[in-house]
Amino acid sequence: MEKRIAVLRGDGIGPEVVNESIKVLERVAQKFGHTFHYYDIIGGVAGLEAYGDALRPQDYELGRSCDSILFGSVGDPRKYTFTGANGTKKYPSRKEAAVKALASFRRGMELFANIRPAKVYPQLIQASPLKDTVARELDLIVLRENTAGIFYAGKYRKEIGGELTACDECVYTWSQIERHARCAFDLAMGRKKHVTMVNKPNAMETGVLWQTVYEKVAEEYPEVHYETMLIDGCAARLVSRPGYFDVIAAENMFGDILSDLANSAAGSMGIAGSGDIGSEGKGLYECAGGSAPDIAGQNIANPIAEILSAALMLRLSFHMTVEADAIEAAIVKVLDDGYRTGDIMTPGGKRLSCSDMGDAISEAI
């Protein structure tokens, strides 16, 4: 099978971890008889420096035309300030422009479903802040709505009646929620058949609409146990009884918070893969831990999250289940053999660089 993959390496450690993902993908292609064609896109702060644009229109169209996008994290806070003759000046618009590379693909391609698996590997259970008996139960997916809500609606900060006032709107339509709900139930059908929709209907009208739409869609999935839960109650249960959950479905803001909480409870953002997919099956796949510019160029970043994101791409967009399983099994074997990067180092572990970890996982496939 042939697939076209757009590659945006991004900023900070992005190029390093993306390179290791491609190394693993090439091993998969060799072993299973596939051909992956890669098309480079320069974006984020790197795009601003190269072209004066975080994502040029022609690069957006190239990414959109491919079967999926392998994405390194964007942003570099070291480059949001400039020291001139009159002192240091901040340029928040530069930061906003860097985010454009990600937001443009998400909204333009309608990648409405952000899928964030969170799982504790037994080999890394000591890295979790939870008790061992609690942590070992953690194996869930946070499904975050990705293209609407408070991140994209109207907002302002201005003076009203002599006082500085700010407002952020949160807007959702029936169809936006419905497609999210179908994705949640479809995911649950392939897992433990349990969907928990998280919101705040006692305080938000959008929460009432989410509850109404989800209840309607749930009728089409009688095999799935469906429930609603308030966001605060979900956060508390996520750290006290994580094994209770299977698929947690949430609007944009709540999903953003809960997905980071779940991955942190698992022990490290360095093992947190992520995928944004749309109705056509195309997706954007990136590690969830950020660009970490403070360690960029040192070959010490953990590439496992980006490699897991590549496995998600194979599973969700390319329907290569066996190949995705092979990558995930290789990661387990490497961890079983005691290999670690610095962020997940355990007593007696064998420390590897970013590139060495990529080699080890590739060789284990």
UniProtKB/TrEMBL annotation:
Q: Could you tell me one molecular function GO term of this UniProt entry?
A: NAD binding
Report the protein name in the record: 3-isopropylmalate dehydrogenase
Catalytic activities: (2R,3S)-3-isopropylmalate + NAD(+) = 4-methyl-2-oxopentanoate + CO2 + NADH
Q: Which family does it belong to?
A: Belongs to the isocitrate and isopropylmalate dehydrogenases family. LeuB type 1 subfamily.
**Needed cofactors:** Mg(2+); Mn(2+)
Q: Which residues form the Isopropylmalate dehydrogenase-like domain?
A: 4-361
Source organism of this protein record: Flavonifractor plautii (Fusobacterium plautii)
Kindly state which keywords UniProt assigns to this record, in alphabetical order: Amino-acid biosynthesis, Branched-chain amino acid biosynthesis, Leucine biosynthesis, Magnesium, Manganese, Metal-binding, NAD, Oxidoreductase
PROSITE patterns given for it?
IDH_IMDH
Annotated signal sequence range: none
Q: Which domain of life is it from?
A: Bacteria
Write out the pathway annotation from the protein's UniProt entry: Amino-acid biosynthesis; L-leucine biosynthesis; L-leucine from 3-methyl-2-oxobutanoate: step 3/4
Tell me, how does this one assemble?
Answer: Homodimer.
Any keyword Amino-acid biosynthesis? yes
What EC number(s) does this enzyme carry?
Answer: 1.1.1.85
Per the record, its GO cellular-component terms are:
cytosol
InterPro entries per the UniProt record, alphabetical: IsoCit/isopropylmalate_DH_CS, IsoPropMal-DH-like_dom, Isopropylmalate_DH
Q: Name one Pfam family in it.
A: Iso_dh
GO BP term, pick one: L-leucine biosynthetic process
